[in-house]
Amino acid sequence: xxxxxxxxxxxxxxxxxxxxxxxxxxxxxxxxxxxxxxxxxxxxxxxxxxxxxxxxxxxxxxxxxxxxxxxxxxxxxxxxxxxxxxxxxxxxxxxxxxxxxxxxxxxxxxxxxxxxxxxxxxxxxxxxxxxxxxxxxxxxxxxxxxxxxxxxxxxxxxxxxxxxxxxxxxxxxxxxxxxxxxxxxxxxxxxxxxxxxxxxxxxxxxxxxxxxxxxxxxxxxxxxxxxxxxxxxxxxxxxxxxxxxxxxxxxxxxxxxxxxxxxxxxxxxxxxxxxxxxxxxxxxxxxxxxxxxxxxxxxxxxxxxxxxxxxxxxxxxxxxxxxxxxxxxxxxxxxxxxxxxxxxxxxxxxxxxxxxxxxxxxxxxxxxxxxxxxxxxxxxxxxxxxxxxxxxxxxxxxxxxxxxxxxxxxxxxxxxxxxxxxxxxxxxxxxxxxxxxxxxxxxxxxxxxxxxx
Length: 453
Description:
Blueprint: H1 2-8, H2 21-49, E1 55-56, E2 61-64, E3 67-70, E4 82-84, H3 93-98, H4 106-109, H5 115-125, E5 130-131, E6 139-141, H6 146-151, H7 157-168, H8 172-177, E7 182-185, H9 198-201, E8 206-209, E9 229-230, H10 237-240, E10 257-260, H11 269-280, E11 285-286, H12 300-307, E12 310-316, H13 324-328, E13 335-339, E14 358-359, H14 367-374, H15 378-391, H16 406-417, E15 428-429, E16 435-436
Parallel strand pairs: 4-5, 4-6, 6-7, 7-8, 8-9, 10-11, 10-12, 12-13, 13-14
Antiparallel strand pairs: 1-2, 2-3, 15-16
């Protein structure tokens, strides 16, 4: 047997030493050391690529502040490159931001419900996800303060429409995708209808809006869940900033009313019912007549002092389904009661709204509503408020680098909207990947407006 072993041994090979116990112990030490060093390296590598507020969990979630974003459909970390158009880059952008005479200021447009147009623009300019190279961008942001400009008389409806069309016609990357990778902000109840020709020009673009419902006066939807994103309303900075706020929440025992409604009637059925209900039950429901001007107009501080003086803040629909009051209520720690059947809310993939608010049928606004609210114990109200306290950071327009902010949530939602390809009834393609229309014309040569859904 020994001679057979010598024949099989390669030329020049030496006898292998016997495997002693010392060798076995040494080998085991090497294996164990290698395992722990590999784990340490993996953890270090992960920490270099994921920020402290992005920790993957075993349930397929990504922790972002107190919220967990689902990995499925979003990815395990934010990986976006967004190009922000410069005001001087495109002829017409300046008018959409500052009016025809350039006299409207950013500070003036920061106030009110349309302030998100300014805040999102400014925060994206400072974002770590911003790129200055169009060729590497996943998405393109089109800045516009058009709602504010219109309200302040900087542009009329016709001028806004003409200017948007003019701006879009100068964007080659808009043309290349049919607008699919371009982002627009429309911060009010009118949504994209502010741009009269939205259905022709930006029907495939990503629209950021607090309004998912149709308005009362329009039959055509400007919101599409597949591509658009619901964003939080613009709560007064004085209530969202860290530290001392405009007013502090009151203990439940010191609140005068069961519920309140702080809004105008506007001839809307639900609001009129609440005003009538307040006359029947003045000790339970506060419903003051709000004025926009004059000596009885509520100042900012007075408004929030009224809002905090009830356990429940009622939020009925007006011209459209959403209301800023829903978001404001979280910062005075008043439980919001949605009385708007078609309302759509932001970040529903990570927030269970049944745990932090109440939604009541708008067709049942009456004494039954107050009876139901009275039946809820203070302990249950405190629990709802505590849960709302954990998620309200998602209503705050802070940097997307913050552990929890509206911008952080918007970036996660934008990541899911990035598309490599999208077909439609008007798109066809050939063996070489060329996109054509039904007349066999290549996409790059299509005439604007591009007829794509």
